């Protein structure tokens, strides 16, 4: 089977380092370097414009760190850190990097890193998120990488949103429910009211509470969620039983 095409951006503030990596990547027919950047600002601009599915990222850049680029990438490409200092390795993997290579990259280590991408979700291109996209959830405690399909629901909290994951984790991130509604796949998520979006696949139990209301158990939520008349109707409609009381 033909390997997927990897559209790569190289981010390094040293031109010779970018050139070395380009030469190494030329041995891999499925990798095309579509852009280069020498700073955090340039990296963000180029990635937002070109939408690569692979980024080689130096840690120390003239105007900041490679880690500063990560929250600005959506959808999230595969990230391979390339740096001269191995003491950044733990932090790189905490940020869910695909791999971590020391300069100058060894051809075999580079090949192994590229091979790992075959086991990652496919490139998502532009537009709203798809179920297998990976997105960064940036909180006050750091960054969590999550698959869209593993989001069980999102609850509005003033200027923030609480993202509930199927694992039971809850992450408070900046952003409105309206923003989430625009970007999440509509075949998977439904906005039930002004404060709640639910992943339909994560609803594991429904129980009726009176004539027009219901309680739903959602995977990853600590308690059941009570729905009023309109939200209950939307759930019944989604499951093909709009007239069920």
What are the salient characteristics of this protein?
five-stranded antiparallel sheet, 245 residues, alpha/beta, elongated, 6 helices, five-stranded parallel sheet, single chain
Question: Can you describe what's shown?
Answer:
The chain is 22% helix and 35% strand. By secondary structure, the protein is an alpha/beta fold. Strands 2-1-3-6-7 form a five-stranded parallel beta sheet, sandwiched between helices. Mean pLDDT is 86; it is low at 121-126.
Task: Map the helices and strands.
Elements: E1 6-11, H1 15-25, E2 31-37, H2 40-50, E3 54-57, E4 60-61, E5 64-65, E6 78-83, H3 89-94, E7 99-102, H4 107-116, E8 134-139, E9 142-147, E10 151-157, E11 160-165, E12 170-174, H5 177-183, E13 189-193, E14 196-199, E15 203-209, E16 213-218, E17 225-227, H6 229-238
Parallel strand pairs: 1-2, 1-3, 3-6, 6-7
Antiparallel strand pairs: 4-5, 8-9, 10-11, 10-14, 11-12, 13-14, 15-16, 16-17
Please list the strands of the largest sheet in the order they lie side by side: 2-1-3-6-7
* Major β-sheet profile: 5 strands, parallel
**If you compute it from the alpha carbons, what radius of gyration comes out, rounded to the nearest whole angstrom?**
21 Å
Which range does the strand content fall in? 35-45%
In whole angstroms, the N-to-C terminal distance is: 51 Å
Helix content: 10-25%
Which segments are poorly predicted (pLDDT under 50) over 5 or more consecutive residues?
A: 121-126
Query: What structural class do helix, strand and pairing data support?
Result: alpha/beta
Shape: elongated
């Amino acid at each position: 089977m033909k390997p997927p095409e990897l559209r790569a951006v190289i981010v390094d503030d040293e031109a010779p380092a970018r050139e070395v990596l380009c030469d190494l990547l030329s041995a891999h027919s499925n990798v095309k370097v579509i852009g280069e950047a020498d700073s955090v600002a340039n990296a963000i601009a180029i990635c937002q414009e070109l939408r690569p599915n692979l980024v080689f990222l130096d840690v120390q850049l003239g105007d900041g760190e490679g880690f500063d680029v990560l929250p600005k990438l959506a959808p999230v490409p595969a990230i391979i850190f390339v740096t001269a200092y191995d003491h950044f390795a733990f932090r790189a993997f905490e940020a869910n990097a695909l791999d971590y290579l020391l300069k100058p990259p060894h051809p075999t280590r580079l090949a192994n890193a590229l091979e790992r991408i075959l086991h990652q979700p496919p490139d998502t291109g532009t537009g709203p998120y798809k179920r297998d996209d990976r997105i960064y959830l940036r909180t006050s405690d750091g960054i969590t990488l999550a698959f869209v399909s593993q989001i069980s629901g999102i609850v509005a909290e003033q200027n923030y949103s609480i993202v509930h994951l199927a694992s039971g984790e809850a992450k408070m991130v900046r952003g409105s429910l309206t923003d989430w509604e625009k970007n999440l796949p509509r075949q998977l998520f439904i906005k039930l009211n002004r404060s709640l979006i639910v992943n339909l696949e994560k609803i594991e139990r429904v129980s009726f509470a009176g004539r027009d209301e219901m309680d739903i158990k959602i995977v990853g939520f600590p308690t059941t969620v009570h729905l009023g008349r309109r939200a209950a109707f939307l759930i019944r409609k989604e499951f093909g039983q709009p007239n069920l009381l």
